[in-house]
UniProtKB/TrEMBL annotation, chain A:
Source organism: Virgisporangium aliadipatigenens
GO biological process, one term: peptide transport
Xref: PROSITE patterns: PROKAR_LIPOPROTEIN
The protein's name in its UniProt record: Solute-binding protein family 5 domain-containing protein
GO cellular component, as recorded: ATP-binding cassette (ABC) transporter complex; periplasmic space
Domain Solute-binding protein family stretches: 109-491
UniProtKB/TrEMBL annotation, chain B:
Membrane-spanning segments: 43-66, 109-131, 138-159, 165-185, 273-292
CDD domains on file: TM_PBP2 (cd06261)
UniProt-annotated location(s): Cell inner membrane; Cell membrane
Name the UniProt record assigns to this protein: Oligopeptide transport system permease protein OppC
A biological process term (GO) from this entry: peptide transport
Membrane topology of the entry: Multi-pass membrane protein
Family: Belongs to the binding-protein-dependent transport system permease family. OppBC subfamily.
Span list, region Disordered: 1-20
From TrEMBL, chain C:
InterPro entries: BPD_transp_1_N, MetI-like, MetI-like_sf
GO biological process, any: transmembrane transport
Keywords linked to the UniProt accession: Cell membrane, Membrane, Transmembrane, Transmembrane helix, Transport
Keyword field contains Cell membrane: yes
Transmembrane annotation, as ranges: 9-29, 104-123, 135-154, 191-210, 248-270, 296-321
Pfam families noted in UniProt: BPD_transp_1, BPD_transp_1_N
UniProt entry tagged with the keyword Cell membrane: yes
Membrane topology qualifier: Multi-pass membrane protein
GO cellular component, one term: plasma membrane
Main subcellular location of this protein, as a coarse class: membrane
Cellular localisation: Cell membrane
Family to which this protein belongs: Belongs to the binding-protein-dependent transport system permease family.
Protein name: Peptide ABC transporter permease
């Protein structure tokens, strides 16, 4: 509410601004800082069930996508993007689905019972497929589909496939079918705690038409085949038309055996310039938009008649990283001082908080608030709270001196300016950088802000002293090991602590979830103290949809809003 | 002619038919005539005054204005107030301070571009036109190569990594932009080189360098100056176009193009962020265009109305 | 003239070749495409995948070999090289997009030309009148507006109109709706509704420059000796204007527009982005962003050919229209 009390300062400003507010107020009403409009009011309490209700049959809907579809094989390193995922949620089958609250739920549509862990040594998992579950040509969903998945993704059977990830699949020793291939048993070499994230079924029999999928060549052909527009489906909808870079149209799958669908047509329209989604929404050229929001987008949508919206926190989190390879920043004391002087609340208030009031400092590197395992490991370190005095004390104790607004190092030489990199064009990060710069001035640390047009290049080459970016989280935490361990591929700032390495390794092979979380948190406490990465906040995802539709809700995980596409529909007349 | 490279600019007229005309007025009085003619173009004169005021504002304003560029102490997101006449953004930056800085940087880009384009283009065109033949062909083919290069890619290559400073952006625009100047000057020189005073200079044993710089270029001044004004206007727009695709001046530094692009989605919600920098772009480009128009009329007597 | 044309085309080949080498070199500075493609992925992309991708794009070979291979495949097989997107065929993509852009700019150019000629002629015949000042002022305003400013304002205006009338006359994105009401009229209205905003926005910018040009070439002709002679002979002012002055004044305009069209084909980047048309301009910008090297080079060739042809047509037209010029 900071901005509001300040706004009272200038009378002229109020008079002038209120003219704008009237035109921008529209139907949503309520406070200036609202996060959800009436249709989505329950989403903060019950993110998995809000905006639900009976549908009436028929109707069509247009959903905006921000990027073109590289290809439809979402297992492929190239097809594995959010946009392709939105389409393939409707056509492929996964045993578990990430829910809006970042938990996972087994998929009742095609599984007969919840997959279970039969044994832990060796790890054995059993899946039971419903007898009704078929692909749209009538072929039953079976163990063969699991086997194709495994063989293409294990990195061994298909050397020419280009999977986005092999993690988990490389540990599987056997995928066996029994009970007419309707029961699937999967055995692992080593324990793999994130097993629920494995498998996304494509029709293996369609792949087999391209070549013998027991050979590398056949697997490769099948892999390529699945990149094309899918002429098959195992889910509620089927792709009927695809215009590259323009649109994808879905129609109901007549052979669908799960929750009954009601929409006749779902069109995904590709709009690559985010700013252009707003006029398109206003003009009803699209009815649903999902986006990383900014202040103006949220304010504008609030003013649109008949549009419901919701902002939800996702598992994607923004953070400030320090490069430990920098001669000066290799010193833990300096890193601690920098993070201690950082004012996270100010950064949040002036950026994301201006349109998303429940944005709050994040205090764990592995788990998200609300998820089991979340533990505050930051507050006790004193970091992120703008404690300039404490920061100065850390510095002087360690042998630094602050003369005027210059920091003098242990060797008596002034500490040079640090390069703070951010993604060019990302306004939120640019603003965070400016705020951080002003905050660091107070302890004599000079910051030089430098944008980068190539975040990938900058991070992997370590071409930064300090950097701000985000990690896309999932409910599966094992993947994050490579971010924190010595020599890990994504450990860009080259943090290294043997204790952390050992704990992480143990955690990533522990099937007991409570124990696994405990181990991760032990590691995280050590990391937090050493001031390598300061988590800022969870990024919100914005969903806006016309109020005529129901059962569409925000799913801020990587699965996205189409996770329940079969339930979407026009609101039944009351 | 592309929308990204800047809107097309009318070229200074150097048609083939101009060969037969001769300068009948003496050098000294020609300038006086030019000034007198220019002063008769009322819009151009008004524009010149406005432009000078804008430049003074951009360079002297920041020295006296109460807010500094990097200050974050203003209330956030206000439209207008006594201490923030152009409003503020969500960080509490004063927009007026930012717009002033933006004007400075945009003007800087434009002037560097004009100097580069003229500095390279004019002698290049003069040499091509003077020598003709094979030299001309080779020089003009080099121009063709430059004309086909996509501005965006060149900007992309130079901006990647470090981020574009005012200088990089100006360099990109200037290095690709001088071709037009070269062509214009070449056209003028082609018609000048056949004239008696060049023949005379040659007969007196003047070297090539001397002929090009002392005789040809001074006589093409009109076309060169007019083209330079057009370059400035075009560069200001090109800079904003580059910012549109994220390849212009990089924050934390700013320019008018950066400011107006940052406010792309704020047209309706926080219009002051969108309109102020945009209006400044238009004002600068507009005044320069009018000045260019006035200069063209002043230098080229054929453009003036003759009594019927 | 045939010999001249052939010579010009032959000369264009080394020009494009040199340009492609420069572009190839420039793309080397924009960063590693594979690294960029997989930046920030969590879980990380397996090394095997990265290696395969580098191999597919030929990045494992020396730089010179990469260029020579590209050139060889282009000349011998008409293959534009691998795109960073494994399923995208660069040649097919360019072929598709050139038509999108042509459709976008055709009407814009016609509109701009008509407006430019009318206002240019009126401005010139009534020099320093109120009408002249109005046209001059309008022209300069459009000339001074950043392209996306015009586009954004047009969109706002169109939305206001739609809202006020309760219809959806104007569309803000794309070339047409994915699905339209049945019937020829509806299909036509849909295409028209999509086309009108980008056409106007492109036409305004182009118009501004061309009207200035038309004005000055018209002025020049009006002040020429032969028009004065025509007047002296007692021809009606109308006849003098249309038969003698306009016809001559259109000659330079023809060449200017031939060049302009050629450049617009590669360069309507902003209009295509704001209105989400998948034409040549938006292809260039995506290709640069994704470091799609061979797509950029393919783009260069196509756009370059249009510029060369545009230049040639401009010169040839000049020769045909103006009998004083002969090419041999």
């Amino acid at each position: 509410m900071r901005t509001r009390s300040k706004r009272l300062g200038g009378l002229v400003a109020i008079a002038a601004a209120s003219v704008l507010v009237i035109s921008a107020c529209g139907t949503s009403g309520g406070g200036d800082k609202q996060q959800s409009s009436p249709g989505f009011a329950a989403c903060e309490e019950k993110p998995n069930e809000c905006n639900n209700g009976p549908t009436k049959p028929g109707g069509s809907i247009v959903v905006a996508l921000e990027k073109p579809i590289p290809n439809f094989n979402v297992l492929d390193s190239e097809g594995n993007v959010f946009e392709a995922g939105q389409i393939m949620n409707a056509t492929t089958l996964t045993p578990f689905t990430n829910q809006p609250d970042n938990s996972v739920k087994w998929n009742k549509n095609w599984l007969a019972e919840e997959p279970k862990l039969l044994s832990t040594t060796p790890q054995t998992v059993q899946y039971k497929i419903r007898n009704e579950a078929v692909w749209d040509d009538g072929t039953p969903v079976s163990a063969k589909d699991f086997q194709w998945n495994w063989k293409s993704l294990n990195g061994k059977d298909c050397p020419k496939c280009t999977p986005a990830s092999t993690s988990g699949y490389e540990l599987i020793t056997a995928v066996e079918g029994s009970d007419n291939d309707k029961t699937v048993t999967v055995k692992f070499d080593k324990p793999y705690p994130d097993w629920k994230g494995l498998f996304q079924l494509f029709p293996a029999h369609k792949g087999a038409q391209q070549g013998d999928i027991n050979t590398p060549e056949g697997l490769e052909k099948a892999w390529e085949y699945f990149k094309a527009k899918p002429d098959w489906t195992g889910g509620p909808y089927k792709v009927s038309e695809y215009q590259q870079d323009v649109s994808v149209t879905l129609v109901p799958n007549p052979k669908w055996y799960g929750t009954k669908t009601s929409l006749d047509k779902i069109t995904f329209r590709i709009i690559t310039d985010q700013a252009q989604q707003l006029p398109a929404m206003q003009n009803k050229e699209i009815q649903v938009m999902v986006s990383q929001p900014n202040k103006d987008m949220v304010d504008k949508v609030k003013g649109m008649a008949g549009v419901n919206f919701n902002l939800s926190k996702g598992p994607t989190w923004e953070h400030i990283d320090i490069n430990t390879k920098n001669t000066y920043l290799a010193d833990v004391a300096l890193r601690q001082a920098i993070f201690t002087a950082t004012n996270r609340q100010e950064i949040i208030d002036k950026t994301v908080g201006s349109y998303f009031p429940s944005a709050a400092p994040l205090n764990n590197h592995i788990f998200m608030p609300g998820a089991p395992g979340y533990k505050d490991v930051i507050t006790s370190t004193g970091q992120g709270k703008a404690d300039v005095e404490a920061a100065k004390k850390i510095l002087t104790t360690a042998g630094y001196k602050i003369e005027g607004d210059k920091l003098i190092g242990k060797d008596g030489q002034p500490v040079p300016a640090f390069r703070f990199r951010y993604t060019a064009g990302n306004q939120g990060r640019q603003q965070s950088a400016e705020l951080f710069q002003a905050q660091m001035k107070k302890i004599g640390v000079e910051i030089k802000i430098e944008p980068t047009t190539s975040l990938g290049g900058t991070t992997s080459s370590g071409d930064y002293d300090i950097i701000i970016f985000a990690w896309v989280g999932t409910p599966y935490v094992g993947d994050s090991v490579s971010i924190w361990s010595t020599g890990g591929g994504q450990n860009y700032g080259k943090y290294s602590n043997t204790q952390v390495d050992a704990l992480m390794k143990e955690a990533s092979q522990t099937l007991d979830e409570t124990k696994m979380r405990e181990l991760f948190n032990q590691a995280d406490e050590i990391m937090a103290k050493e001031a390598y990465v300061l988590p800022l906040y969870q990024k919100p995802v914005f969903l806006a949809v016309y109020g005529d539709y129901i059962n569409i809700r925000n799913n801020p995980t990587n699965v996205g809003p189409t996770y329940n596409i079969e339930e979407w529909g026009l609101k039944a007349d009351s | 002619m592309s929308d990204i490279q800047s809107p097309p600019v009318p070229k200074a007229p150097v048609p083939a038919g101009s060969t037969e005309r001769e300068f009948t007025v003496k050098e000294r009085t020609q300038w006086q005539i030019v000034v007198r003619r220019f002063l008769r173009h009322r819009l151009a004169v008004v524009s010149l005054i406005v432009l000078i005021l804008l430049i003074l504002l951009a360079y002297i304003g920041p020295l006296v204005w109460i807010h500094k560029l990097e200050d974050l102490d203003s209330p956030t997101d206000i439209m207008i107030s006594a201490s923030n006449p152009m409003g503020t953004d969500s960080l509490g930056h004063d927009m007026f301070a930012r717009v002033l800085r933006g004007m400075q940087q945009s003007i800087k880009v434009a002037v560097i571009v004009a100097v580069l384009s003229t500095g390279i283009g004019a002698p290049y065109g003069a040499i091509a036109g003077y020598f003709g033949g094979r030299v001309d062909t080779i020089l003009m083919r080099i121009c063709d190569v430059l004309l086909t290069l996509p501005l965006l890619l060149v900007a992309g290559a130079l901006v990647t990594g470090r981020g574009g400073s005012v200088l990089t952006v100006a360099l990109v625009l200037g290095l690709l932009g001088w071709v037009v100047n070269a062509r214009v000057v070449r056209g003028v020189v082609l018609s000048l080189r056949e004239q008696e005073f060049i023949e005379a200079a040659k007969a007196l044993g003047a070297g090539t360098f001397r002929i090009v710089f002392n005789h040809l270029l001074p006589n093409a001044t009109g076309a060169i100056i007019v083209q330079a004004t057009l370059d400035i206007a075009a560069a200001i727009l090109a800079e904003s176009a580059l910012s549109f695709v994220g390849l212009g001046v990089q924050p934390p530094d700013t320019s008018l193009g950066v400011l107006v692009n940052d406010a792309r989605s704020a047209v309706e919600t926080r219009p002051w962020l969108f309109y102020w920098p945009g209006i400044m772009i238009i004002l600068i480009a507009l005044t320069i265009s009018f000045i260019g128009d006035g200069l063209r009329d002043a230098f080229d007597p054929r453009q003036m109305r003759q009594r019927r | 003239m045939l010999a001249y044309t052939i010579r010009r085309i032959l000369v264009a080949i080394p020009v494009l070749l040199v340009a492609s080498m420069i572009v190839f070199t420039l793309t080397l500075f924009t960063g590693d495409p594979v690294e960029e493609k997989y930046a920030g992925r969590n879980p990380p992309v397996p090394q095997q995948t990265i290696n395969l991708e580098r191999e597919r794009l030929g990045l494992d070979k020396p730089v010179v070999v990469q260029y020579v291979t590209w050139l060889k495949n282009l000349v011998t097989k008409g293959d534009f090289g691998p795109s960073i997107e494994s399923t995208r065929d660069i040649g097919g993509e360019l072929g598709k997009r050139i038509f999108v852009t042509l459709r976008l700019i055709f009407f814009a150019i016609v509109l701009a030309l008509v407006l430019a000629i009318i206002s240019g002629v009126l401005s010139a015949t009534r020099q320093y009148s109120k009408l002249d000042y109005t046209f001059t002022f309008l022209g300069f305003i459009f000339l001074a507006m950043p392209a996306f400013w015009v586009a954004v304002l047009l969109k706002q205006g169109a939305l206001q109109y739609n809202e006020a009338t309760g219809t959806r006359t104007f569309f803000t994105i794309g070339e047409r709706s994915v699905e339209t009401e049945p019937g020829l009229f509806n299909a036509f209205a849909d295409i028209f509704g999509h086309m009108i905003l980008p056409t106007i926005s492109l036409a305004l910018i182009t118009y501004a420059a061309w009207s200035r040009f038309q004005r000055s070439s018209m002025l020049e002709v009006l002040n020429s000796d032969y028009v004065r002679l025509a007047r002296a002979k007692g021809l009606s002012p109308r006849k003098v204007l249309v038969r003698h002055a306009l016809r001559t004044a259109l000659i330079p305009m023809t060449t200017v527009s031939a060049l302009g069209i050629a450049q617009l084909i590669g360069g309507a980047v902003i209009t295509e982005t704001v209105f989400q048309w998948n034409g040549m301009g938006s292809y260039l910008i995506t290709s640069i962003a994704t470091r799609d090297r061979y797509a950029v080079m393919g783009w260069l060739l196509v756009a370059g050919i249009f510029i060369v042809v545009g230049n040639l047509v401009a010169d040839l037209l000049y020769g045909i229209l103006d009998p004083r010029i002969r090419y041999e």
